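Question (not urgent): is this output format expected?
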Amino acid sequence: MLVITRREGEEVVIGDPDNPIGVVRVATIKGDRVRLAFAFPREIDVHRREVADQILAAKPSVVGTIRPTGTKAH
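Got this back:
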């Protein structure tokens, strides 16, 4: 795990600096609370850990793909 120290208003660039995947900015710091701002494309999911765990727990595990009989894969 990479740990980076940032001050309020400072950013971390994710990916190639010329064409980043996204940017994380420290929006505000109040006491022991830190607000982060995430700038990522809409197609990239960003979740809090507890939400990600709920999503994983709700997903049925899939071993393979089942196709109806008589269909051809194109």
